[in-house]
């Protein structure tokens, strides 16, 4: 008798599950959205995951073959991440409503609710996110960035020494790796005042651990949990040893440094301006401000979010410059005209920072590189916390509205001849014809990247200081045009290689 009760209960559970799944996978179609063919167990996610370059071609195929026209401007498509509805759109009015004008409704990222989620900006929700973001925003003000410039310049000096060796020996160097060392040295110091040595020691503990952690952020259990959200609890418990273990190592470093600072004060000399110290100052004496857990979680996320993205943007930009000697020449001319051989006093560095952030052609080149090779290429989104009608489209509660960055940045209607590297697209004369919401490397709205100023400064400083000394050519072993893929959430060159030959400039 017990057996038949158990079998009946199991049958009821399965039938209910099948019914619910069937309903969930028809929500968008019933509202008139066009959806690519759906798999009953995986929704559309498997096609994205299986794609050989990490989803980039799949996104383009979906938007080209299945998306409907949406008004006179743009397209719209529905798809399912497991049973959860997702909307991709390129319509600027629709995107502006979601990401900017109605950002109070669309406030959260569509992240999985994992039991080991950490309370940092990327994961936080609702009012908790708003509070932490408003406390952390001043950490990235232009005044603070200018102070961090000296750390960046010191780290770029080390890079310059490494590049000089390659120039003297006429050997090709893997700039993807070199820039990863640079950005981790910078973020280690700007984030935690931690003297790390990632550029000269490829076995540096932080470098090894951060690489490992990034690999594990998008583990297979996260994908299975997207297919079957009901299994999330057990899956993240089973996987605690992997992702959680490496996360914990970095978090406990941050925590150790925080405790030492609290106990002994900051190191002798001028008060440090790393973001850990800035967060501690922001929390001082006010229990309503940041807790220690929030401080270490955000120190952790600055390291993860600030390292690979900036390195990727630098590596692709240097590749593009090497592949386009006419652009390289024009950029060098701008640098030589505007940037004096400078000293390193705080005042000189502040002046350098101001000039660099204002250099028109450098800005055009960097933006065009971010358009062609956006470091977070696939998508980012917001979750509808209630049913909404946006530009005449019903967006049901629980839907993730996402910007398909890769497609938008290469849409020939928005960017004619999209695979042509043409910094003139961002020239002052053409800038007005760039369509709204068509250039989104750092996201959009109140939740866009908090580190964009930091990344811009670091990347532009590195480009300027290197181009003052070197020119770049494509290495004999590079594949040109470069092959790329999306790994985890970040774009990268295939085989993790961007091979270039630096040459010392004759001045
Ligand atoms: C070229 C370099 C970078 C690129 C392309 C980039 C891109 C992005 C994108 C696309 C988002 C999502 C925005 C959205 O949902 O609207 C984001 C969020 C974020 N980024 Fe960056 N990022 C870069 C560098 C950095 C750096 C240097 C830091 C920190 C030091 C950083 C920290 C963050 C954080 C904390 C968030 C979450 C913000 C929030 O939810 O409030 N990023 N970034």
TrEMBL record:
Cofactor(s) listed in the protein's UniProt record: heme
Gene3D superfamilies in UniProt: Cytochrome P450
Gene: CYP3079A1
Name of the protein in question: Cytochrome P450 3079A1
UniProt: heme binding residues: 449
Membrane-topology descriptor: Peripheral membrane protein
Keyword Metal-binding listed: yes
Keyword annotations of the record: Endoplasmic reticulum, Heme, Iron, Membrane, Metal-binding, Microsome, Monooxygenase, Oxidoreductase
Molecular-function GO term, any one: heme binding
InterPro entries: Cyt_P450 (IPR001128), Cyt_P450_CS (IPR017972), Cyt_P450_E_grp-I (IPR002401), Cyt_P450_sf (IPR036396), Insect_CytP450_Detox (IPR050476)
Any one Gene Ontology cellular component term annotated for this protein: endoplasmic reticulum membrane
Pfam families: p450
Family, similarity comment: Belongs to the cytochrome P450 family.
Localization annotation: Endoplasmic reticulum membrane; Microsome membrane
